[in-house]
Amino acid sequence: MASLSTGIQKRLFAILAAIFLVVLSGSTGYYIIFGGEPKFMDCVYMTVISLTTVGYGEVLEITGNVPAQVFSMTLIIFGMGIILYGISTLTALIVEGEVSGILRRKRMEKKINKLSNHYIVCGGGETGRHVLRELITNREQAVLIEQDDQRIKLCEELGDILYVRGDSTEDDNLTAAGIKKAAGIIITLPYDKDNVYITMTARMLNPKIRIISRMVDTKIEPKLRNAGADGVVSPNFIGGMRMASEMIRPAAVNFLDRMLRSREGNLRINQITISSGSDFVGKTIKTARLKDKYNIMVLACQEQGKKDFLINPPSSTPLAGGTTLMVMGNVETIKEVRAIV
After folding, report:
1. Which fold does the domain 2-98 belong to in CATH?
2. Can you give the pTM of this predicted structure?
3. Phi and psi dihedrals of 165, rounded to 5?
């Protein structure tokens, strides 16, 4: 995308430079032919009305002045050729949508530059599209990095997405996607070596970012962890678990599918971390009225610094700063409660 826009910018610059040189050459020519007597602005004006053939009349005494007439004819023939070429080139760029594409990309770059605590998705293939769909459903800000136009179009069907057209393994594209201000990056490329490289690069560019990477070969997991990945997902492993679950607990799988795939409702399982300065600190799950007031069900809780979860915690469980709650509820409501706590 960068090379394409640079090429178009060069063409536009060349056209404008050529037109400027024609006007400057014509004006200077008239100024020299008439011995420097007329004002230079009159020479510029004469050049412009000659090239545009508006027919306002001669500002300079060209009639009867053979050198001026020859120069005018030459200027019109060659100058008009350059101007017509410039107009046709500019028209072609507009018709082909390249100019509008540049303007759209500029607007998108401005939006991306304003983002913070967003998520970056590397790769817009089958896995990447599902990731984007879930992020959009959860009202999260996401930026896609993808170099295939067809995949970008398919991802755009999900909604008004922001994207960087380019290779995810290039540092410039990661920077353009705002990796230094991002909260997390999800790497979904089909090749493990690319995923390892992007993981390592992302960790170098933003030491605090959360990195989730796809892996094909389970043997590569230690390398991804050492490169800086916080989480590693194997589609083959997940697929196998899913097939077994379909066999032995079909009702539970059907429930989760309806929750995740339904486009009518936005019911999701999510997490809420209570900050130390929150009004929820010191309250219990019951007195916080998460169920009564916000219709949010607390499935589990995890105290700060502990790895274990308290599954199905009783309503008398106290809430402390740093506690993370696993909850199920409406996406918008969960987002509202997050802002409060």
Report:
1. Helix Hairpins (1.10.287)
2. 0.62
3. -85, 110
